[in-house]
Each structure stands twice: as C-alpha cells, then as structure tokens.
Amino acid sequence: MLTDVPVLPDYPYTLETLDNGLRVVVSEDHLAPVAAVNVWYDVGSRHETPGRTGFAHLFEHLMFQGSTHVARNDHFGLISAAGGTLNGTTWCDRTNYYETVPAHHVETALWLEADRMGGLLDALDQQNLDNQREVVKNEKRQTRDNQPYGSWLDLVHTHAWPEGHPYQHSTIGSMADLDAASLEDARGFYSTWYGPDNAVLSVVGDVDTEATLAAVRRYFGGIPAKGQYPPSPPSDLPALIGQEIRRTVPDRVPVPRIFVAYRCPPFGTPEFDALELAAIVLGGGRGCRLYKSLVLDRGLLQAPDGDVTSTWPFVAGATVFIADLPAREGADVAELEAAYHEIAEGLADGVSEDEMERARAVHTSTWLHHLATVDGRADTFSQFTTLFGDPGLVNTLLPRQLAVTGADVAAVARDFLRPDNRVVLVFEPAGDPEDAEEVGE
Fold first, then answer.
1. pLDDT digits over 216-266, tens only?
2. Separation of alpha carbons 90 and 378, rounded Å
3. N or C terminus: which one in the chain shows less Cβ crowding within 10 Å?
4. CB-hemisphere CA count at 13 Å for 420?
C-alpha cells in the first residue's frame, strides 16, 4: 500500500485547435523570463514505406535548411542571435522540433516554425537534399558503423518485431534507400506528412496565453490543412515473440556486452506502467537488484553510468523492455547472462514494499526533474497530445503510475520477462562482424 503520497504539481494549460487542425497547447510559467516552443509532427520511421526508410530522420535535417522567408542555416542564426537554443529529434512515432528563447523572442520562434511548416518546399532543392543525405550517412558511420556495439539498436529492431512490422527498422533507415531517393521523393514525403492538421504546437513559459494564441493564429492560421493523411501502418502482432532469438556478434569491442529485449504492451497501457516500475526495481540505479547482485556481490557487471534496464515508450501494437549488460573485464559472459536471467525472472516471485517505495521515489524524481524545465514540459505536452490526444496526462500519468503495486510488477514480469519472449544479443571482442552467428530466425 502506498504511503507518504507526495504532493505533485498541477501544471495549467490551455488547448485550442485552429481551423486548419493545428492543436496548440499553451502553459504559463512566470518563474523565469524564458519560453519553450515545441512542435511534434505525427510522423516517424514507423510511417515510412518499404524502399523509403530513413525519410523521417532525413527531414529532421532538411527542416533546418531554409524555407520561404528563411535562408539556409538562418534558423540556427536567428535563434542563436536571440540568445536561444534549438534542435530536432526523430523517433519511430514522431518528429520533433523545438526552441527555447528569452520570452520576448517567442514570436521569432513561432514565425520560424510556421515558415517551415508551410514553406519548406520553396527551399528544398537538389543541393539541400544531397548535402543532408551525406550528413545523415556520416551520422550513421559515427553512431552505428564505427561505434563499439553500434549495431545493437538496429539488431533489436530487426529481431524484436517481425518482417513488415513498422518498428522492424530503426529511424536511421537504409542508406541504400536514402541513396536512391530523388528530389521528387523527398518533396512528396514532406507534402504527405508535414501539415498543421498533423502537428501539435506547445508553448510553455513566461507568456500570456491569449497573446500567444493570437500570435499562433497570425503565423500558423493561414497554412492550409492537408485534410487527409495515410492510415497508420498495421501494427497487430502476437503479444509474445514466442521463442528466444539469439545472436552472437563478434565485433571490435573491448569487453563482452549483452543486450536483452523483451516484447511487451505499448506505452499508455497499465502493463507498461507496471513495467516502468519493474525496470527500476530490476535495473534502476544503485539500489536495484542487478546492481546489488551483479556489480557489488559477484563482480560480473560493469558499474553502469545510468540504468541497466529501461522501457521504450512506443505506442503501435507493442514496445520493448531492454537490459544493457556490459561485462566487467575478465568476467565470464555466460555466467553474467545466466545470473541476469535468474534475477530478471525472479521478479515474478514477488517484489517487496520497500523496493516499490524506492521505485516510486526514483520514478517521481525523474519525472519531476524532466518537467521542471519549460522545454521538458513543452515536449511532454506535445507528446501526450500527439500520441493520446490528452495534454492533461502531464498531470495525471504520474499518479496513475505511482498506484502500481508489487503484485502488478510481479505479474508483468511473469507475463513478459520470460525465456520465450526475448532477443539476446551477445557482443564478443573477436573476429569479423560479418561472421556473426544467428539462430532462432
């Protein structure tokens, strides 16, 4: 039973939908004279079609290369000159662009976002496409191809979801697909997905709600709605993988490292809430079961910089629960793996109330730390409005998750952290990566 229930903040917000379908969330916070502008487009790598993978991520780059009234690289220059910061990110379920600026420059950020929402095609030429295609290829080389253990993410996508599922490829996509992409293909992708009625705009900070909504209507109201978007790709699949899929990957790595992925219910479900707490009990921080047993008692696992286990907040059909297990130098990797499985499966036997209290406290701290900044809050408003149509989850999701019990955690461990529902990737410091052994296909 939950004791010492924390007093949680309640963040005010206003949600308005413009005539063109753009959903706008404004949340006032006058603690500091800054404001965050955050746009989520409801398009990510899972919306891509075969032969056209990597386009959502490519557009994260192209969106900074100019638009109708903004020259190439001026988006960065104008925000930097105003004393602000900016960036963009891509994942399977969305593409996101954001700026944090001194509050009196909020309209600069709104104007820039509106100009590229409605006018990117005026600047999207062959030179921009070729330049950013090379940037993406270099990013892939740096973060995947030439990075120790760099292929683990793509391998999880490949094996945790079946052929043809929209999560079966990662956001970086196929370099062959990007090489084959024409300017017409790129322009078509933008024309298909980038419109006000497929976006959420959140503004959080030292702003006036009515004045901000008036500015949003002024800058975004004239962008026409597209009216129709392709249906989401089918994502139905069995709840469980149905077997253990194992791959040994000889690679240029200093020590062995094991990644274990379990298929589980998607973000937004009660089971996912319980798995978030399970990840903390099992592998979150220095008070978790894995740290105590595998780092302190047995010396098999390297002391992690972050959490050993985590969940991915995917919404289409199923997501994954991940364990990242770098072996301590000289440790027996088979012994490490066996010990991990024993501890993970042991969650099904029960979780103490002390463990649950710690997990709730850790989860609350992480959550509130993220929402303490205007940019974190703006991103979360955009996330919940895009994925669930409910910005109010910013205030209601944490209490729901804090109600998870030890019995709930044991139940999801029993149902999902099991041998017939896992992908095991074992990286070993030997041989040619092309010699990887693959079983369970």
1. 999 999 999 999 899 888 888 888 999 999 999 999 999 999 999 999 999
2. 16
3. N
4. 6
Pairing mode, strands 243-251 and 421-429: parallel
- pLDDT score, position 146: 86
Check residue 115 and give its pLDDT: 98
In angstroms, the CA 289 to CA 340 distance is 10
Residue 94 φ then ψ, to 5°: -170, 165
Q: What does the block give as tokens for 313?
A: 């907040």
User: Dihedral of CA 334/158/323/145: which sign?
Assistant: positive
DSSP 358-374: HHHHHHHHHHHHHHTSH
SS3 at position 219: helix
Nearest C-alpha neighbor of 183 from the set 241, 236, 128, 223: 128
3-class DSSP state of 43: coil
CA–CA distance, 189 with 12 (Å, rounded to integer)? 36
Q: Can you tell me the distance from the alpha carbon of 251 to that of 434, in angstroms, rounded to the nearest whole number?
A: 9
Distances (CA, A) of 55 to 32, 116, 117, 180, 360: 37, 17, 16, 11, 38
Q: In 10 A of CB 163, how many CB atoms? A: 6
pLDDT recorded at residue 437: 47
264 residue type, one letter: C
CA–CA distance from 403 to each of 33, 201, 273, 398, 407 (Å)? 36, 31, 9, 9, 11
User: Which own/partner pairs from 238-244 qualify as long-range (CB within 8 Å, at least 24 positions apart)?
Assistant: 239/263, 239/265, 239/318, 240/416, 240/418, 240/420, 240/421, 241/160, 241/420, 241/421, 241/422, 241/423, 242/420, 242/421, 243/420, 243/440, 244/419, 244/420, 244/422, 244/423, 244/424, 244/440
User: From the CA atom positions of the chain, what is the Rg in Å?
Assistant: 23
The neighbouring-strand residues paired with 23 are 17, 200
pLDDT score recorded for residue 7: 81
Cα(246)–Cα(155) distance, integer angstroms: 11
pLDDT of residue 434: 52
- Residue among 173, 155, 166, 436 at smallest CA distance from 322: 155
Strand runs labelled E in 253-371: 257-264, 309-311, 319-326
- Write the CA distances from 321 to 75, 260, 414, 416, 431, integer angstroms: 37, 8, 13, 9, 29
Taking 70 as the pLDDT cut, the residues of the chain under it are 1-6, 431-441
Helices (H), 120-207: 126-140, 152-160, 175-180, 183-193
Greatest pairwise CA separation for the chain in angstroms: 64
- Domains of the chain in sequence order: 14-220 (3.30.830.10), 243-439 (3.30.830.10)
